[in-house]
């Protein structure tokens, strides 16, 4: 559900860019393509096999399921915040209120990473 919301935010940001500026400005086109590429990479990272995930604690047969679920949730949450940052970055060109929103999204993302590490260490 949250991934669908973040995908809709990216699509809305792209529609906004195309509707207001079109592709007349080459920098806007490059920014548009970079936003789409980053979001596609982030959407696929949540489906990485378990052997490619670097866990902060030693994995055993007893805790692998819990650690894997927490790592996937973290990836999805970080994906949402990165998509928010990209949308607010595109909006900050015309709207000054979007600049503080980028900082809020970065702070929330870092806070979620810290909370993940706390829970991962608690549930070794």
How are the SSEs ordered, and which strands pair?
Blueprint: H1 2-20, H2 26-45, H3 64-91, H4 98-122
If helices are DSSP runs of H or I spanning 4 or more residues, what is the number of helices? 4
Principal-axis shape equals elongated
User: Strand-and-helix sequence, N→C?
Assistant: HHHH
Q: How would you characterize the largest beta sheet?
A: none
Using only CA atoms, what is the Rg?
17 Å
Structural class: mainly alpha
What's the end-to-end separation, in Å? 28 Å
Describe the structure.
The chain is mostly helical. Helices cover 74% and strands 0% of the residues. It is built from four helices and no strands. It has helices at residues 2-20, 26-45, 64-91, 98-122. The two termini are 28 Å apart.
Characteristic key phrases:
single chain; 124 residues; mainly alpha
Structure in a nutshell:
With 124 residues, the chain is mainly α. 74% of the residues lie in helices and 0% in strands.
